[in-house]
Amino acid sequence: MDRILFGDNQFFGVNHMSEEKARTQAMRFQDTAAIIEVLDDAYAEGIRTFMCTTHERISEVCEHIRANREKYPEFKFYPCMPYAHKYANAAAELGVLGAIRSFLPEENAFGAALKGGLSLARKDIEGLASLLIDAEMKMFADLPAPIIFLQNVATDFLLGLGFDEAFRIFANHVRERYRAEPGFITMNAPLLCDRLERIGIRNPLICTNLNKIGFRMSGGIDAYENLIASGRCRLIAMSVFASGALPPREALEYVCSRPRIQSIVFGASSRRNIAQTCGLIQQLTSASSGA
Amino acid sequence: MLRAAIVGLGKMGLSHHSILNAHPEVTLKAVCDTSSYVLDMLSKYTGVKTYTDHEALLSKEALDCIIVATPSSFHADIVSAAIERGLHVFCEKPFGLDPQVGYRLADSAEHKGLINQVGYHYRFVAAFTEAKRLLDRKLIGELHHIRAEAYGPVVLRPKGSTWRSRKSEGGGCLFDYACHAIDLVNYLAARPQAVSGTVLNSVFSNDVDDEIYSTFHFPKGVKGQLATNWSDETFRKMSVKLCFWGTNGRINVDRQEIQVYLRSLPEPFEDFKPGWNLRYTTDLTRPVWFYMRGEEYSAQIDHFVQCIKTGATPISTFRTATDASLVATMMRDDAAKPYTAVVPLSAPALSITVQPVAKAPPKSLVRTLVARLLSAGET
Asked: A264: closest CA among A232, A225, A238, A228?
């Protein structure tokens, strides 16, 4: 796993600080070419991993990378699924079951859809989950996707329900079908780690908010500090800038001074910002490891 | 440990299920829904006890409290049955569709000393709480205008198969969406005394409204305007924004941030200064014990639990929620009233040429011209 991962919130109008900024970003990136331009900048700055949602527009990015593999020989994806708003909006319009049905694959009517119907009818969550995962993974066909994440709304929803079996089903399917490592994004890392261990997922890969001010670190910053120190899981830090509430150096000092945090995911829209953040991470990482 | 149950496992019911189940002071005893499919899944994988009939649930389970998250038209019956059994009740919004029933339920819950709360979760969004604090303190002086807006991507096609698209079940933008903005206006400023010029318009839906516009009239001549549209996909998710104009400044507030403009600051107040003052959700939001989809959803459930423990009155009650329904009902009635017609002025009016004058014409001349134009229009 690379030290620095590139996120995609900035491309899809996600901004936790300002609705106006979010809309400005949505306008700027409405053409996928604008997204690819930023990814080119990131690649030029040495970033090799794109940690992205399964937003439908990512499929256009995937097509571009597939068509230009020689230009991006080391480029890889860490897909994060499902894209929650897609499901939430569909659930309001079609009901919970209607939403699930609407995301089952349409083609291969005889195969997949029938299997989906059967899975639905038999309440076979394993079959159903596999179909939904496969539907989300289709856009990454033939592209390297060595880690596949369960998105935080899904992880935390299941965590709250106590539907722990779903984590095992997800992990197994990702390992068996995609030869990939399962990862879990969460806002409740201490609780999730306990639960994953309980169902036998040891040393899990967890991507979670890690920032100096404890923003969206549920369970409290102390529980997170203990989790980091325990070495019970491999950690990827997200939201290190707490949505812009922290100045870059101060924010990165916090994560870089904790060597057990393996990777840092961040999003940026300009080459200057990408270069600055990468530079700071490298500088602070080597400072903290005493290199 | 509080013993709880949930009736209705749609999008909101499932969300409450997850949050409530994660609460350290609550035991979720049972859930109830008409879909045996969802129930079987939950029972198989989480072990929760399930019912298809809320009466059976209420009579068989020993409970302290209940969450009602069925389609709106079922709220009143289930809430009434729960109150009868002495349970504390958290009900999804809107609280009933008939304000008379709503106030009656509020009376009976209050009479029995039961905690009653409604899921107007925007009251728990930190930026709106901060806006209330500043408005109550009259930081922007005396209010004179309010604008409330809510937009989002709910109905984007002329179809829809759930209760949300059926008027008879409480669907429609007015009760399902605009109510959030109305409730925030009630909470942050005051309940309007009158409404006028209401427009309920359908964009895609056959049976219900998709966009709503209305003018609110408050005490002391304060006016407000409401604009809501749930057929707007330029917003990634529901977005509610309120603006307040006062004699000493202005407040813009949404989920992410609060912008406060102050003309002056007669006496020092915290670190506010004249001109713009910005506060972000990251600074204002208090952490929650479990985060699923926004702090406010967890915070409102915890608030319910804490109110049960301490006997405090929730900040969103049956009564305040019914106030929102009452305003919505007034708007619905107002929308049926005739509008003021714009009477076109006919051709002769255009043939009148007015000689340019070096200075503004005296009022009497304007009046004469207007009278002439109007009489020309009538012929």
From this structure: A238
Chain B residues touching A22 at Cβ < 8 A:
236
How many distinct helices (H) and strands (E) make up chain B? 13, 14
CATH of the domain at A240: 3.20.20.100
Helix-helix angle A84-102:B36-46, to 10 degrees: 110
CB atoms within 10 A of CB A291: 6
Residue A109 banded pLDDT, cuts 50, 70, 90: very low
Q: What is the pTM of this model?
A: 0.89
Quick one: pLDDT band at residue B352, thresholds 50, 70, 90?
low
ipTM of the complex: 0.89
**In 3D, which of A266, A161, A119, A134 has the Cα closest to residue B45?**
A161
Give the pLDDT confidence of B250-284 residue by residue, as tens digits: 999 999 999 999 999 989 999 999 999 999 988 89
B287 Cα to chain A: minimum distance (Å)? 7
A50 CB contacts (<8 Å, ≥6 apart)? A5, A6, A8, A39, A42, A61, A75, A76, A77, A78
Domains and CATH numbers, chain B: 2-121 (3.40.50.720), 123-292+315-335 (3.30.360.10)
How near does any CA of chain A get to the CA of B49, in Å? 13
Is residue A183 very low, low, confident or very high in pLDDT (cuts 50, 70, 90)?
very high
Residues in A touching B35 (Cβ below 8 Å):
96-97
Q: Is B172 helix (H, G, I), strand (E, B) or coil?
A: coil
In chain A, which residues have their Cβ closer than 8 Å to the Cβ of B282? 16-17, 213, 215, 242-245
Cis geometry, peptide bond prior to residue B24 (ω within 30 degrees of 0): no
Q: Which of A215, A270, A188 is nearest to B283 (CA)?
A: A215
pLDDT of B354 over the 60 cut: no
**What are the Cα distances from residue A24, in Å, to A241, B81, B118, B200?**
20, 49, 35, 30
Provide the number of CB pairs (under 8 Å) joining chain A to chain B: 137
Rg of chain B over CA atoms, in angstroms? 25
